[in-house]
């Protein structure tokens, strides 16, 4: 009878240890999954930050390009206006003289 009680005690102890091992395995599994999720989230955050950084850079370059193009277009417009003014003045000057010979003699006397 004493042997049976001892055997029963050992069986209970084994069952407790088995349950503990099971719970430990479950906890390890849960922690591993949590760790994997954290790694995925971290990777996603890093990817998003890099993406946002380069999107901002591209946007800034686009804005600078647009500003530069506007500036160049304005300069080009100003040059065209200057050229039209010069053409108008040249036309006026040539109109003052009957022919090329008169213009050349006028230039020589200056």
Describe the structure.
It is a single chain. Helix content is 95%, strand content 0%. With 110 residues, it is mainly α. It has one domain.
Name the poorly predicted regions: none
Q: What is the number of E strands?
A: 0
Helical residue percent? over 70%
- From the N-terminal CA to the C-terminal CA, the straight-line distance is 143 Å
Which structural class do you get from the secondary structure elements? mainly alpha
In short:
The chain is mostly helical and 110 residues long.
Please tag this protein with its features.
110 residues, rod-shaped, 95% helix, coiled coil, 2 helices, mainly alpha
Write the topology of this structure.
Elements lengths: L1 H95 L3 H10 L1
Keywords: Coiled coil
């Amino acid at each position: 009878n004493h042997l049976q009680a001892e055997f029963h005690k050992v069986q209970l102890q084994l069952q407790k240890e088995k349950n503990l091992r099971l719970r430990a395995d479950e906890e390890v599994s849960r922690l591993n999954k949590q760790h994997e999720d954290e790694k995925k989230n971290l990777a996603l955050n890093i990817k998003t930050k890099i993406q946002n950084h380069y999107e901002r850079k591209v946007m800034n370059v686009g804005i600078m390009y647009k500003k530069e193009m506007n500036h160049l277009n304005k300069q080009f417009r100003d040059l065209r206006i200057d050229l039209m003014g010069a053409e108008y003045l040249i036309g006026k000057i040539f109109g003052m003289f009957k022919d090329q010979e008169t213009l050349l003699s006028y230039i020589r006397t200056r």
